[in-house]
Design goal:
Number of strands: 6
Helix content: 40-55%
Low-confidence stretches: none
Order of helices and strands: EEHHEEEHHEHHH
Structural class: alpha+beta
Distance between the termini: 33 Å
Radius of gyration: 18 Å
Largest sheet: 4 strands, mixed
Strand order of the largest sheet: 3-6-1-5
Strand content: 5-15%
Length: 193
């Protein structure tokens, strides 16, 4: 599997690769991991002169050998929109195939245009992430993931509330973000229906 460098409309680099989700990536700040362990967590922050092996490419543009598809199958249809390429790359890596990021292949990508950046897209993102952990990790690990994600949402909600209070509610972006975190928390507390 190979992915290129995704670009915004203005030519700036987007994130084109992703590490496989884990408790470590959920509990820490991904940019911190990229900074501390750049070989394990490569990112757009670093320039690579040639292809670099990665866990997974972002699904906006991928090239995959037919032999690899024959070996592992196609996308798992249980994923609605997010993480299907991560799951696929995970299967390929388990089957002995490599996943490469080719930084000299440029692809313009209008990020978020297919599904948007609203509450529904965030819920689909969490639903797909949970699907990945249910499929590939043990029951206790999956439970730990649920707890960590819930705790992170509570912290994000509280910190955003603090920002809303400190700005006296004048920052619409903060108010909107706080409301989204609140709805995501409510969705989680209802058992992620």
């Amino acid at each position: 599997m190979a992915c290129g460098q995704l670009l915004n409309a203005d030519g700036s680099r987007q994130n084109s690769i992703a590490a496989f989700p884990s408790l470590l990536t959920l509990m820490t700040n991904t940019p911190l991991l990229e900074y501390l362990f750049p070989r394990r967590f490569p990112s757009k922050r670093y320039s690579h002169s040639g292809p670099v092996e990665v866990d997974s490419g972002i699904g906006a543009c991928l090239m995959v050998r037919m032999a690899a598809m024959d070996a592992v199958g196609l996308f798992d249809e249980r994923y609605h929109f997010f993480c299907e390429e991560t799951d696929w790359a995970y299967q390929m890596r388990r089957a002995g195939w490599k996943v490469l990021h080719v930084p000299t292949a440029f692809i313009y990508h209008l990020q978020g245009q297919s599904i948007g950046r609203n509450l529904r897209s965030r819920i689909e993102f969490y639903r797909s992430r949970y699907q990945f952990f249910r499929k590939w990790r043990s029951g206790p690990y999956y439970l730990a993931v649920r707890v960590v994600i819930l705790l992170r949402l509570v912290v994000d909600w509280l910190l955003t509330l603090l920002g809303v209070l400190l700005t006296l509610g004048f920052q619409k972006g903060l108010r909107d973000k706080w409301a989204v975190y609140g709805r995501l928390l409510a969705w989680h507390l209802r058992g992620c229906p």
